[in-house]
Fold:
Amino acid sequence: MLLSVIDYIAIVIFSLLLGLIISSTIYDLYMERNLCRPLFNKSWYNSTITSNRFSDEPTTLYLAFSLHRNYSDLLKIEPPSSKTIECFYGLRALAVFWVVAGHRLWKHFSEEPLKYTGPFSEFVTKVVWNNKYAAEVFFLMAGILVTLSTLKALDEKRVNLLKMYIGRYGRYMPTLAAILLFIMSSFPALLVDGYLKKYFESRTEPCHKYWWSSLLLVQTYVNPTAVCIRPTWYLSADFHLFVLSPAFIFTVWKLKYKAFLLFATVILANQIGIFVASYYDTVPNDLIYYQTHFRIGQFLVGIALGYIMHERKGKHHMRKRTQCIGWIVTILVFVSIEVIHKLYQEQRFVKSLYSSVGRLAWTVLTSWAIFVCHHLKSGGVVNWCLSHPVWQPIAKMSMSIYLIHEVYQSLTVANMEAALSLNSAWMIHIIGGDIIASIVFGAVVYCVIEAPSIVILKCLLK
Structure:
């Protein structure tokens, strides 16, 4: 097999990465266990780490690629803190598992007919198939977090938009670029040997043509029907909304709760636009799902909730009766929308209305759960489940899992030897295997690419 230019670039870059990992890990073990002298001159080393100018940046950079350090940090359980929203751990983990499970059914079995047997199998399928709601959880959390951090910066008069944008872009790019380079090289071809080999080739073909739009996070507008690595549509939408967020956050910081009227107007106009586009079929459903301007409603709900949490610091009391009413109302609204859609989904009006308000209703329900669990310090078993420390490692590497699971599932589909007939047992078996494999590969990607890039980015932005 002849090597292409991309193959040579991939070999060089991944070889350099391997060298950094080995040297950094050895240095970390030497320094931690004191097995021998430091690799550097003793006097220079001591003067460097004790100088005020450098503090701990040099040693931090030396250890950035250490597998030992990154793996330990991944598994480290942080104690409860008022600065963290602990229920986000469970939400992130469950949302990314939902994405992995749904993509197995939604896309990766689309080449062959699915056969479901039994009512339980059908129920599980319907739940998993609605994994579109997982994206709303990510948008909601992103809106809350950027609002809390920006409002704090505004209060302290230290807002730096350029630093914000570079930090956000740099958070995605190393992991995305590494996975993109792997897909564009010939390495995946060595792993594909099934009758659906052409399926994998069709999935990776857009990467060779539109790799630049993926790196610039504009693929949902430049080439929306030929996105390279399908899940990256979320990175594009999230970054676009992040860029727009200071305008909305500054507005609510100045106008306070009066800005909610503006938010409601924008959300209403956006949902009406979605309804019209769906009803008259002027925009394909994929674009309604992918493109940023159709997602602004969920993000604004996150900004509004973030502002409420910021303004209500120290005010954690709400009557149990009021909390119960809140749970009942939000759950009933969401369930009613789902039931109406189930009963009348063939009618164009109902289908379009569901496209407009279904995801927004789920966002409101999730935002209520976050408000009760984190801000009111209540929520009972829901709060206990979402805030359990077991979710912390999964939450830390959720982005790596989100990006790498697409590659893993595409490779498994390309290596299929026959169509699958799925009952509930087989469905749970396959999806469970996907989740476990995604965790393993996600941990590898996190330790060798994502974690080092976070350390380097923090040092550069200091």
Confidence is low (pLDDT under 50) at residues 35-56. DSSP finds 20 helices and two strands in the chain. Residues 326 and 368 are 8 Å apart (CA to CA). Residues 424-461 form the longest helix (38 residues).
